Every structure is written in C-alpha cells, then in structure tokens.
Amino acid sequence: MNTSLRLMAPFAIAALALAACTSAPSAPSGDSSAPAAPAQSAAQPAPQGDDQAAPQSTPGTQTPAPTQAVMGALPDAGVGAIAAALATQPGTVVGLDDGIDDNGEWEVDILPDGANKAVEVKVLNGQVTGTQPDTDDDDVLSVQGMTVPIEAAITKAFTMLQGTFDSADLEMLNGVPTWVIDIDPPNMADDDQKVQINAVTGEAVLVAD
Q: What is the DSSP letter of 43?
C-alpha cells in the first residue's frame, strides 16, 4: 500500500498543477470587461451642448445697441455714423446730432458737392436707415472757406470743456463759418455748454455755459 501511494503521489501533484493552470484563464476573463471603459468615452457628446450654445451669442450682436455717452470725446458710434453717411451721400458734413434722444439713431447733415441744400442722413448701429432734405439755408454759405472738419472742431471743443457730446452744427456767424458745438456737462444737471470754433482758423471764439 505504501508503495502504491508513493507511485500515485507524482500523478496527484501533476493533476493539481494542471487544475491550477486551467483555472488561471479566469483572470483574463475579468480583463475582458476592461474595454467597457472606452464605451463610456463614447458617451461624451456633451461638447455638442457647447456647440449649440455658442451660436446663441451671434444673434445678440444683431440687436440695436443704445448709444452711450463718452466723456471728453466723440463716441465711436458718432465716428461710425459720419463714415456710414458719407459712404451713402458724399459731400461735406455740416452737422451731427447724437442718438441718445432718438433711440440710438444719429443724424448726419451733409452738403453734397455743388448742391445748394444739405441732406439729413439717419444712421443706427453704423447702418443708414433713411435720408431726407435738410431745412437749413446757411449750409452753402458756411461751407465756403471752411477748412476745419467737424471731427477736429469737436476735438478742439473738448480741450476747453468737459462733458459728453450732444451736437455740432456749421453756421454762418458774423460772416464767418463757425462750428457751434453743444456739450452736456458732466453732472447733466445744467443746460448744454456751447463752444463756438472758427471753421477757418480752428480758434475758439466763444465758450458759454
């Protein structure tokens, strides 16, 4: 009996080793579940929500932006209004009115070359919204001899008074082409301040509250 047991012992050991080898592949079966992780990454269409949200900002730029007063300078909206008006109606700018009291719509008065009447050009957000004849009869006379453009006159006015731009008009005063520029005071409590600037020499001839 002892001899047979000794002979069977090596076979028993081999059988145990074989069983261990056959059970080892059970570990890779657990690894086979690992590819499930990439499946979660496939469920990452969340960035599409960001792509859909981005275009919503584009329509917002199309809504009319109200004119904002700028202390001590002509607002960019005014500069843009002049450029848009001249692109539609070439000539000499003889007047400019801010759009604060008119829902952001600027008014640019232009005297076409060789014409005897100025034209009012309405501009909103850099776009011309309409034109109509101007009723001022002094435009032709005031343009004669004028060498100081409206932007330079406004810049000169702000070196003398502080506030925000209201309007500028080219007029004939005492036989001299003169820019009359209205500036709202900083506290907005008082009436407009006026600066009269010689449109030939660029000198300020009158500053009045």
A: T
166 phi/psi in degrees, rounded to 5: -120, -60
The answer to whether the CB of 78 falls within 8 A of the CB of 96 is yes
Mutual orientation of helices 150-158 and 76-88 as an angle, nearest 10°? Answer: 170
Residues 57-90: tens digit of each pLDDT: 333 434 445 556 778 899 999 999 999 999 999 9
Residue type (1 letter), 78: G
Q: What is the C-alpha separation between 50 and 65, in angstroms, rounded? A: 26
Q: Specify burial of residue 110 (Cβ count, 10 A radius: 0-12, 13-18, 19+).
A: buried
| The amino acid at 100 | I
Q: What is the pLDDT of residues 139-167, one digit of tens each?
A: 788 888 899 999 999 999 999 988 999 99
Q: What pLDDT score was predicted for residue 53? A: 40
- Spatial distance between the Cα atoms of 166 and 154, rounded to a whole number of angstroms: 10
What is the amino acid identity at position 156? K
How far is residue 133 CA from its own chain's centroid?
A: 31
What residues contact residue 172 under an 8 Å CB cut-off, 6+ apart?
Answer: 138, 141, 142, 178
Give the dihedral sign, CA 188/192/156/115: positive
CA–CA gap between residue 6 and residue 18 (Å, rounded)? 19
